[in-house]
């Protein structure tokens, strides 16, 4: 299996596992969005917390030029750590939600 296909499978598995974690309050659904042709992967939430609508993106990952760009990470422990544990090396993970000036100090890929 080539690296790109392996990355896709790892990302989908990790996001799917997060999608199984129930919310402690509200009637909130989790939706995975996997667009393999554009290499975009998301975990969305939608629902209601009492009278307030809840809608948003918890995780947004995109594969760009062989690197895993994390654009949104709303997890407690960090999705980058999950990707590391699954075998994706640090030098291929970009914390896209960090400014380029800060990114070079994270130990992850710059771009």
Would you give an account of this structure?
The mean pLDDT is 94. The relative contact order is 0.15. This protein has a five-stranded mixed sheet with strand order 1-2-3-4-5, with helices on one face. The longest helix has 17 residues. It has one domain: TATA-Binding Protein (2-Layer Sandwich). The protein has 111 residues and is α+β, with helices and mostly antiparallel strands.
Please specify the SSE layout and strand pairing.
Blueprint: H1 3-19, E1 27-35, E2 40-49, E3 52-64, E4 67-73, H2 79-85, E5 93-94, H3 100-103
Parallel strand pairs: 4-5
Antiparallel strand pairs: 1-2, 2-3, 3-4
Summarize the structure.
Helices cover about 25% and strands about 35% of the residues. It has 3 helices and 5 strands; from the N terminus they run αββββαβα.
What are the salient characteristics of this protein?
111 residues, TATA-Binding Protein, 3 helices, alpha+beta, five-stranded mixed β-sheet
The low-pLDDT segments are none
CATH superfamily: XisI-like
Report Rg. Answer: 15 Å
- Category by helix and strand content: alpha+beta
Terminus-to-terminus distance: 25 Å
**In CATH, what is the class?**
Alpha Beta
What is the total domain count? 1
Backbone shape: globular
Number of strands: 5
Strand content: 35-45%
The string of secondary-structure elements, in order, is: HEEEEHEH
The residue fraction in helices comes out at: 25-40%
Tell me which CATH architecture applies here.
2-Layer Sandwich
CATH topology-level fold name:
TATA-Binding Protein
Task: Output the strand order for the largest sheet.
Answer: 1-2-3-4-5
**What about the largest sheet?**
5 strands, mixed
The pLDDT mean sits at 94
Instruction: Quickly count the helices.
Output: 3
